[in-house]
């Protein structure tokens, strides 16, 4: 067995011994375990007492050599690690096992191979922490009888065969291409949704604008009709006041005669069909005819004004009917 790297050389019994801190010296008397020397000053009997084992109570670091292991999906891996342990019971560490370092190292290697055989290659890389904890738990179950406590186990390197490494790289590239394609499709979908939302909002705003335009146009036309009606009513009122004045009838006759004569200038401008009176060459007769029309209209109006209408409102089944009578 290889010598213990953490143990000091065995001291010679010189009756008076000084034990360093964090070390435990196991003393045998006549070949039988006698006691464990505490740090500080100690006395031994020459020839009868002999320091048999020197155990370090510090935390010990052991390199676990590289070894091959087969994963659950039949991939051969080369794995090495680091083991951290501490001696809790110097008596068990001295008499429970021949070489604690060798025993713990072999136990760590076998446990590592056993745990790796339960995992696939992908899970070995993703679950290194759980793998380390499982190895520590398995080592502590066996090393309790040796007085040794395994504190931590860390995997340093995992070497994968070249072909498997190439396939893993291809898998990573394919996964990245997949994510890029998915992100691109999601971006195109978001863009299409944004464009559709924009078109929808544009159509809504356009319809609202058209609606407002039609409302404004209708309001403008209504105002124009009201304004024309008010202007026409005002013109008729002014005309009626003018007719009631002196020589109003003569002025109205002159105006009607002028309009009657000027109407002939617009003939044949909008249609090919022309209706002419029989005496178009006689201007005076046309004016006389226009004045006769105006006179008859004036007489009819005056007759209508001389009568007194009597209006009655009758209500029949919710409808209002006006009844007009003349005295």
Automatic annotation (TrEMBL):
The membrane topology noted for this protein in its Swiss-Prot or TrEMBL record is: Lipid-anchor
Where would I find the Band domain in this sequence? 14-172
Compositional bias ranges of the Polar residues kind: 299-309, 317-327
Coiled-coil parts of chain:
212-246
Main subcellular localization, coarse class? mitochondrion
**What are the entry keywords?**
Coiled coil, Mitochondrion
Q: Where in the cell is it found?
A: Mitochondrion inner membrane
* Matching CDD domains: SPFH_paraslipin (cd08829)
GO BP annotations, alphabetical order: mitochondrion organization
Q: Where is this region: Disordered?
A: 299-327
Give an example GO cellular component term for this record.
Answer: mitochondrial inner membrane
Q: Which Gene3D superfamilies match?
A: Band 7 domain
| PANTHER family the UniProt entry points to | STOMATIN-LIKE PROTEIN 2, MITOCHONDRIAL
Give the family this protein belongs to, as stated in its UniProt record. Belongs to the band 7/mec-2 family.
Its job: Mitochondrial protein that probably regulates the biogenesis and the activity of mitochondria. Stimulates cardiolipin biosynthesis, binds cardiolipin-enriched membranes where it recruits and stabilizes some proteins including prohibitin and may therefore act in the organization of functional microdomains in mitochondrial membranes. Through regulation of the mitochondrial function may play a role into several biological processes including cell migration, cell proliferation, T-cell activation, calcium homeostasis and cellular response to stress.
What is the recorded name of this protein?
A: Stomatin-like protein 2, mitochondrial
Source organism of this protein record: Cyprinus carpio (Common carp)
């Amino acid at each position: 067995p290889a010598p213990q790297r953490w143990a000091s050389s065995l001291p010679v019994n010189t009756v008076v011994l000084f034990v360093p801190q964090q070390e435990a010296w196991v003393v045998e008397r006549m070949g039988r375990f006698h006691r464990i020397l505490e740090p500080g000053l100690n006395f031994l009997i020459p020839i009868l007492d002999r320091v048999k084992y020197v155990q370090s109570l510090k935390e010990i670091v052991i390199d676990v050599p590289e070894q091959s292991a087969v994963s659950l999906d039949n991939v051969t891996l080369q794995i090495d690690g680091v083991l951290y342990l501490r001696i809790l019971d110097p008596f068990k560490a001295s008499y429970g096992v021949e070489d604690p370092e060798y025993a713990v190292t072999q136990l760590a290697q076998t446990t590592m191979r056993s745990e790796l055989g339960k995992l696939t290659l992908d899970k070995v890389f993703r679950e290194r922490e759980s793998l380390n904890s499982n190895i520590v738990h398995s080592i502590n179950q066996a090393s309790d009888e040796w007085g040794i406590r395994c504190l931590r186990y860390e995997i340093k390197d995992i070497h994968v065969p070249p072909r498997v490494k190439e396939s893993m790289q291809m898998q990573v590239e394919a996964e990245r291409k997949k994510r890029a394609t998915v992100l691109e499709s999601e971006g195109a979908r978001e863009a299409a949704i944004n464009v559709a939302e924009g078109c929808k909002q544009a159509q809504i705003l356009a319809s609202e604008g058209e609606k407002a335009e039609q409302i404004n146009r209708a309001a403008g036309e209504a105002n124009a009709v009201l304004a024309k009606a008010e202007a026409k009513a005002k013109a008729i009122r002014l005309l009626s006041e003018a007719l009631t004045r002196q020589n109003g009838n003569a002025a109205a006759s002159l105006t009607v005669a002028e309009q009657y004569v000027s109407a002939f200038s617009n003939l044949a401008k909008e249609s090919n069909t022309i209706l002419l009176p029989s005496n178009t060459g006689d201007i005076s007769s046309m004016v006389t005819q226009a004045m006769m029309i105006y006179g008859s209209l004036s007489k009819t109006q005056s007759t209508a004004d001389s009568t007194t209408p009597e209006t009655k409102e009758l209500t029949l089944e919710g409808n209002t009917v006006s009844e007009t009578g003349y005295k």
